[in-house]
Amino acid sequence: MNLTTLLIQSVAILGGLGLAVGIMLIVASRKFKVETNPLIDEILSVLPGANCGACGYAGCSDFAQKVVSENAPINGCPVGGFDVAKQIGGIMGQEVAEGEKEYPFVLCNGGVNCIDRFEYVGIEDCKAVMMLSDGEKGCNFGCMGRGTCVRACPFGAMSIGEDKLPHVNKNLCTSCGLCISACPNDILAFAKESEKVHVKCRSHDKGKDVKAVCTVGCIACKICEKNCPVQAITVTDFLAEIDQSKCTACGICVEKCPQHTIELRSVA
Predict the structure, then answer these.
(1) Closest by alpha carbon to 40, among 21, 59, 20, 13?
(2) Terminal Cα distance for the chain, rounded
């Protein structure tokens, strides 16, 4: 057998093996093919594709599957908002009512108004700061101002201002809630646009202790509670709280608060 014949036979054998393996793969793919619900692909096509996990699922694909198979809320994608929810509702044959928009709200006005107990030198991360005696700020309940929430936002909607507090750019915010989840001190919470009056403090320390470290913290004086004409404010555990269902945004509590802890914001 000469070399040419040997090469031809080798090529033929390898080609036959390749053909056989190819046929086996085709047969196996057809036999073991997992049928997918076409509704999943339709829903996936209208999702924003951020895969941020703000819906509570592993990503857009997982969310789409859960909507179809496990009745996950069709308005569960905060990034897509009402427009995407409406499209998913159309695919699933369900009506969707548009809810009021919510944005992260900063429940602290400390920042530069709150003293530092020590000078921190280290990783610019709120969690890292809080590992040192609950943080450098005089108030253990306050914002550390190290930007953990900023880095958690995939849309560039958060920033730390000169007041050393986080600020939300509503034009960029998708209300995904990742900044809220990332904050180690629960400084951020969702608030509806119509909720105009807020207590910008989370401290449950006694009044004298608050005044010793912060010029704008709630001192539980109850002046706001006594002056509210609709009983929308109560002071519990040394902190004023507002019942948004009762509040009429009259602004009396804002005017009366000696610490300027309560804020009346515009709806814009």
Answers:
(1) 59
(2) 90
- Comparing CA positions, the residue from 254, 253, 249, 252 lying closest to residue 266 is 249
CA-nearest of 125, 105, 71 to 175 is 105
Whole-Å CA distances, 121 to 116, 117, 129, 142, 144: 13, 13, 9, 19, 13
Task: Tell me the C-alpha distance between 237 and 75, whole Å.
Answer: 36
Write phi, then psi, for 193 (nearest 5 degrees). Answer: -60, -35
Under a CB-based contact definition with an 8 Å cutoff, are residues 180 and 189 in contact? Answer: yes
pLDDT in tens, 176-198: 899 999 999 999 999 998 999 99
In this predicted model, what pLDDT tens digit does every residue of 40-74 receive, in sequence order?
999 999 999 888 888 888 899 999 999 998 888 88
State the Cα–Cα distance between residues 64 and 71, nearest whole angstrom.
10
Pairing of strands 102-106, 188-192: antiparallel
Q: What is the DSSP letter of 246?
A: T
Q: Which helix (H) or strand (E) holds 46?
A: helix 38-46
Asked if 220 and 235 touch (Cβ cutoff 8 Å), the reply is yes
Q: Which two tokens stand for residue 162?
A: 């000169």
- Helix (H) and strand (E) counts for the chain? 10, 8
- Strands 233-236 and 166-168 come out as unpaired
Which residues is 233 bridged to in the sheet?
Answer: 242
